[in-house]
Known about the structure:
By secondary structure, the protein is mainly α. Helices cover about 70% and strands about 5% of the residues.
Amino acid sequence: MNEQRYLPNADRVGMLTSTVLLAFALSRLIQAPEFNVEIQLPGFFFLLPLNLTAAMSVLTAGLTATGMDWLLREHPSLRGRPTYQWWLLPTLTTFVIGVPLSILPTGAAWWMSFLIAGVFLFFVFVAEYIVVDPGAPYYAISMAGLTAISYTLFLVLSVALRYGTIRLYILAPGLFLAAALASLRILHLRSGQWEYAWSLGIAFVCVQIAAGLHYWPLSPLQFGLMLTGLLYSLTTLAVNLGEDLPAHRALIEPVLIMGMCWGLAIFLQ
């Protein structure tokens, strides 16, 4: 019974997960006309495609944030605190998994991705509920899981955007938002502080490197591995410096991880 107070209500988390998945399924089943926003600028033609899938991604992200707030309101350790810090990652999760689901054609691969998305969402909801209370029995496991999921989501988004041959002016804002939110949540989990400056700086560097890699002949997986390695290295460096480690020690893990990810990406070529 003592452990139950640290876990979300099974009916609520099941309803929230199924509602989000239903929104994804409806966006695939319902056919709606598409149109483009076209703006001719000096030396540049701006084209922004608008369709039902894009609209549903935004609405589903909002649904996730609202549902996570509803789920957290019954947590005995919340004590009236604002809940936004615990629905940032679930909202990002919904946004990210919506990208490959909108790109993949209907078939076995789409349904497999749909099932994986449901599992991802369920565990994110449960883990975020658990980390509300640092004294929860599964707090350390949940924190490690959320950190791993944050990096995985950024990898999935990077690969999906590269696979979809998205234009740079659309790719850059998406990666910036994902990198900023992922690093912000990870830094808060590790240090307990909202490191907005670090998160914006990390996201800015990631987008700058992504803009350069965008024109290289890289596969989607190579592109994603390089950017995820960069995100991990910069976030770890921020954590190490926040713990007052000497600069040479703070750089060891980031440099090793960066080298491994970029080396693996080169090997895959």
